[in-house]
Amino acid sequence: MAAKAIIFHPLILAVSILFFLTSVKLLYTGSLSDVILMMSTWVGYSVMLLLIVKSMLRGYSDVIERVGSWPWLSGNSITGASHKRDEILVAKENGEVVGVLVLRIAKAMTSPDMLGVRPRSSRRKSSARWTGIIRAWTVKRTYRFRGIGTRLLTDVVANCRLRTLDGPIFADDHANSVKPLPMMFNTVFEKQEKWARAFLEQIILAKRSR
């Protein structure tokens, strides 16, 4: 997805189209040799673009190595302190793990107006409370759009209600929060994050109405 965000960014597309049109105008005079020269130029440009994209994606290598490791699972989170051991919920299809959600039970400061927050006593309105914090949520690409991710979120909402926890909420430093790319390429990821938070709120509301 990060590579697509770069290659299909409006600015990159505009520059690429301009390059191709300019090369046609400058190089093509009607001969076969001009066509071969243009094709070689386009291939060279494409290879250069792919090398630039590969270089820009190097930052994700460190993220991939860190996220999901034991140090990451046991490390501190900026969203909640005094955490317990992380819990991992999995979804399976035909015996294969196709979806994972990492849940942390931690004391966190939550707003009384936030969805999923239990009623507070007047004496302890400002105290941190045990909250379900989602640190990671993913489904294998080939199994997406089948309701697996929805099922994982629904299960974790029910789990928090059963254990009288606040939330669940997404951690501020969740697995996909690190964005190594320049800001101009992060629009698609920001939209995806907003969608995920809104989708979680919908599930919490649906559980409330039952």
From TrEMBL:
Chain segments annotated as transmembrane: 7-29, 35-53
Organism, scientific name: Coccidioides immitis RMSCC 3703
GO MF annotation: an example: acyltransferase activity, transferring groups other than amino-acyl groups
Top-level taxonomic group: Eukaryota
Keywords on record: Membrane, Transmembrane, Transmembrane helix
N-acetyltransferase domain: residues covered: 82-163
Designated name of the protein: N-acetyltransferase domain-containing protein
Pfam families assigned: Acetyltransf_1
